[in-house]
Specification:
single chain, 131 residues, alpha+beta, 8-stranded antiparallel beta sheet, elongated
Length: 131
């Protein structure tokens, strides 16, 4: 057996092994149902319902949100039907809750553009986080 034939067989075997590994892992590597914002925080489409969840790092379920906005390192999201906003500092992994009045009166939060979640979803990329 020549070295070129051996290399060809090795290459086919290596490709097959990589394919088996990718197919057997539980990670959803090519998912279009979740898109990362930053620091592991993601928006995930909740089936075909038109709802979106804000997921925290290493979790599969999260808060169903209607509106969201971000500016490094802050994510601001309002849960479905809620009067309050969740504020996440991605640099410190801190989460707080504020009222709509607080959001509108604080200069830091005022500078963050709030969008309907469907619009925000379209701005995110499947395999690229914002920061």
């Amino acid at each position: 057996m020549s070295s070129s034939q051996l290399f060809y067989k090795f290459r086919r075997l290596a490709f097959f092994l990589v394919l088996v590994c990718l197919c057997s892992c539980h990670a959803d590597l090519f998912s279009s149902s979740a898109r990362e914002i930053a620091g592991g925080y993601r928006l995930k489409r909740a089936g075909d319902s038109g709802q979106f969840s804000l997921l925290i790092p290493y979790q599969t379920g999260g808060l169903i949100v209607d509106e969201i906005g971000w500016r490094k390192p802050i994510i601001v999201a309002r849960g479905a039907g809620s009067k309050y906003w969740d504020v996440i500092n991605t640099a410190r992994a801190e989460r707080t809750t504020i009222s709509d009045l607080e959001r509108k009166s604080d200069p830091v939060y005022q500078s963050i553009e709030i969008k309907p979640v469907e619009m925000a979803w379209r701005e995110l990329h499947a395999n690229k986080r914002l920061w």
